[in-house]
Amino acid sequence: MNNSYLLLLSTGKTYQRITTKISLLEPVALLVARFYVGWVFFSSGLTKLTNWDSTLFLFEEEYNVPFLHYELAAYMGTVAEIFLPLLLMAGLVSRFSALGLFFVNFVAVISLEEIAAAAYAQHVLWAILLLQVFVFNGGRFAFDHLIKCHIAKF
User: Fold this and answer.
1) Which pLDDT does position 42 carry in this prediction?
2) Half-sphere CA count of 119, side-chain side, radius 13 A
3) What global pTM score does this model have?
4) What is the DSSP letter of 67?
């Protein structure tokens, strides 16, 4: 065997060891994503609850939620922003809660006539993190994983 082949083989094995170690961070990354996005939406829902008159005013005057009466949109948005983040942070029906919040996020973006570039960038970040959870599920540190392991025992 020549030296270049041995170097390539050695580099490949080193790369494999490093990527295997990095893969151990996947459940942590999913947990952080779930809690970060969950907290953003949950705190938004709490804000809506604490000043309901202001919430109704915003939904009537500022947000243009398509196909829904402003009051129904306010109730639906607030309920979604309270319950879906709790499910997401717990990792319970992670894909469903991530998809639900992705939809809430999407509706929020299309409902505003004007959105600042920084706010739009945040919505894009939240969408990407929610899609990550939707694709990979909640990870090892989620109730979904515990339930799956418990069911597999039977």
Assistant:
1) 98
2) 10
3) 0.87
4) T
